[in-house]
Design brief:
By secondary structure, the chain is of the alpha/beta class. It has three domains: 5-197, Rossmann fold (3-Layer(aba) Sandwich); 213-431, ANL, N-terminal domain (Rossmann fold, 3-Layer(aba) Sandwich); 435-543, GMP Synthetase, Chain A, domain 3 (2-Layer Sandwich), CATH 3.30.300. The longest helix is centred in the last third of the chain and has 19 residues, at 525-543.
Length: 544
């Protein structure tokens, strides 16, 4: 069978056509309604000459139209290109060119940015303005680039499912910003993406399921109400939503993250599962819960991925929701989920997420040899085999560095370091590209960040390395404080000495009103480093 994302969705449509599938604000759609509208858009795109292998950008926040667009693109075997809605002009122009984009579906308020970039790319011939749920009355000018409205595109198009056969080899691309440089397009086969990110492998057991398992189960089980909080322009959020669509669950989306509104939705809709991006969402959410009058008793599961969900924040969550399940998942756009850990108040770790390794995930040493899982304490790079990406789009050099063959087996090795623990578990230490070498010792920023966040006056923190004449580099902290009188460097060092070795302690500190993070909640290390460098230069100049 094809094991194609569009087919997996259509299996669920056929299984539970009248079941609600998607809700944004007061708008709710059934499986059959979402299918009909995505078919209409798919027919429009096909009428415009777009088909298998063509690249179509989606430049939008979380909305029903965003989901319709994804499904329509998959239905005609085209490739969806995720566009970060916070891009500046140069970044958007780069993505259009690098991805070989031939069509763009954008929310109408972004028309000015599209007008500034689209004319530079003659291959981009089809542009459709989607309604924006936060600005439904936008009348931004589309004439500058020959755009049309969403209603104009769908008008008169068939709602029937009459598309040709698809393949599990069809391409799925996720552009990921990483920690430095321009975004890279990670190329997956549909089947492989489903296996490691869409529920095609049981995350707890590692067992592979069959094509109709999710849709058949949907017929016989009650649906859950799920609420992925991260933007759909992020691969992890897309995967979480698609997995729930395949399995017959109701997915609630919001175009922006607002902690108070999130709790109102959880209580009103009786949400059972939320999926979030570490502390960037978990901390403001739990603080809003504690200061508001929310119930939250419907929550059964709280899942975090793609960023640190730190010990002090977890402890507050677990105290507030003692009967809920908490999971930490590790992975990346290049590997999918590499491991999942069920957390409880008795075994919360402070140094980083501790998870059970997935069935196809190993730890490699510096010579690309698999480290025996019995070698507790050994540190190496996480690597996944089996269902892994093809490579990076239009970048064979980076592909060769990330996708390696070891003893005849192909691995994806994006550079995340981990320490082997007991019982086939690992502690995630962070991306090697961010590792700080100070006096010959390696320091992983995320470990120091976790420790910093346990200080009562530290709201958020990022850690970077700065050049140092004596040590080569020293550890520097960028701190967002809870207090108008933030903790001094000496205060932080005193607190950290109880938790970390001396060489891991920050030697300089910068204070900010808000920690720089991406729209998805991931750490923006380049911006943090600029802040730390400027503050350190100023301190050195003042000292002289």
């Amino acid at each position: 069978m094809p094991l194609n994302i569009a087919d997996l969705f259509e299996h669920a449509v056929d299984a539970v056509p009248d079941r609600p599938i998607l809700q944004v604000g007061s708008r709710k759609m059934t499986y059959a309604e979402l299918e009909a509208q995505s078919n209409q858009l798919a027919h429009f795109l096909a009428w415009r000459g777009i088909g298998a292998g063509d690249h179509v950008g989606i430049y939008a926040k979380n909305s029903i139209e965003h989901v319709v667009a994804l499904l329509a693109i998959f239905k005609i075997r085209a490739v969806a290109i995720n566009v970060n809605y916070r891009y500046v002009e140069a970044e958007l122009s780069y993505l259009i060119e690098n991805s070989d984009m031939v069509a763009l579906l954008h929310e109408r308020p972004y028309a000015e940015m599209v007008a500034a970039t689209a004319p530079q790319h003659p291959a981009l011939k089809t542009i459709v303005a989607m309604p924006d749920p936060t600005a439904p009355d936008s009348d931004a000018d589309l004439s500058l680039f020959g755009g049309m409205t969403w209603d104009e595109a769908l008008a008169g198009q068939s709602a029937e499912r009459d598309f040709g056969a698809r393949s599990g080899d069809d391409l799925y691309i996720v552009y990921t910003g990483g920690t430095t440089g321009f975004p890279k397009g990670v190329m997956w086969r549909h089947e492989d993406f489903w296996r490691v990110l869409g529920g095609g492998i049981d995350f707890m057991t590692g067992n592979r399921i069959e094509e109709f398992t999710q849709s058949e189960t949907a017929k016989t089980t009650d649906p859950m109400v799920t609420f992925p909080l991260s933007p759909l322009m992020h691969g992890g959020a897309q995967a979480a939503m698609l997995m729930h669509l395949f399995a017959g669950h109701l997915t609630i989306l919001e175009p922006g993250f607002n902690p108070e509104e999130t709790w109102r939705i959880i209580d009103r809709e009786k949400v059972q599962l939320i999926f979030m991006t570490g502390d960037a969402m978990a901390r403001p959410l739990i603080e809003a819960y504690e200061t508001g009058s929310y119930d939250g008793s419907s929550l059964v599961a709280v899942a975090s991925s793609a960023a640190i969900f730190s010990r002090p924040v977890k402890e507050v969550w677990m105290k507030a929701f003692p009967n809920a399940f908490f999971t930490d998942s590790i992975g990346s756009s290049e590997t999918g989920f590499s491991g999942t850990g069920l957390q409880d108040s008795e075994n919360i770790q402070g140094q980083g997420p501790v998870v059970a390794l997935g069935a196809e995930t190993v730890v490699l040493d510096d010579h690309n040899q698999v480290i025996d899982s019995a070698n507790v304490g050994a540190i190496g790079r996480l690597a996944r085999s089996g269902s892994v990406p093809i490579g990076y789009y239009r970048d064979p050099e980076k592909s060769a560095r990330t996708f390696l063959e070891v003893d005849g087996k192909r691995y994806s090795v994006p550079g995340d370091y981990a320490r082997i623990e007991q019982d086939n578990k690992v502690t995630l230490l962070g991306r090697g590209s961010n590792c700080i070498n100070t006096g010959g010792e390696k320091v992983y920023p995320e470990e120091v960040e976790m420790a910093l966040k346990s200080h009562p006056d530290v709201y958020d923190a990022l850690v970077v390395g700065l050049p140092d004449e004596k040590w080569g580099h020293h550890v520097s902290a960028v701190i967002q404080s809870r207090s108008t009188e933030p903790p001094t460097l000496e205060d932080l060092q005193t607190h950290l000495r109880k938790l970390l070795s001396g060489y891991k302690l920050p030697r300089s500190v910068a204070y900010v009103d808000e920690i720089p993070r991406t729209a998805t909640g991931k750490a923006n290390y380049p911006a943090a480093k600029e802040i730390a460098e400027a503050t350190h230069r100023g301190a050195v100049a003042d000292a002289h």
